[in-house]
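To: structure desk
From: M.T.
Subject: fold request, one chain
Message: Could you run this one when you get a chance? Sequence is below, nothing fancy, just the single chain.
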Amino acid sequence: MQPDMVMDYPKLLEKGYVWRVHVELPMQDTPGDDIYEYTVTVDVVSPTQALAQYIASTIYPDSSSFSVLMNLSLPDGFHTAPEGYSYYVQEFKRMWFLFGFCITQLTLIVVILLAQSGDL
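Reply: Done. Structure tokens follow.
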């Protein structure tokens, strides 16, 4: 069976149906310990902010607080996701590349310092 239309994540982003919700959950390691807040960020698919808030409160009924931070949508100039990926996937890949580049540079600096000190 072939669908007539597929609403994948990039299309939902394009239509403005993805909302980022910030949820704070009370956590306790063991009984008697202090209760602290555990923060969760959830992307909720919903046509409205109110429905996104309701969905988040249903998923996390024990939350101490939650707020809809923003409506996620593709940045201006993007009408569809580039090469079939969402904008956020592209940024994630770029971020990992930069992270790998920084680790490589730090390793090189450590090797040079060890060589200069004679420990290598």
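Reply (cont.): The two ends are 63 Å apart (CA to CA). Let me know if you need anything else for the meeting.
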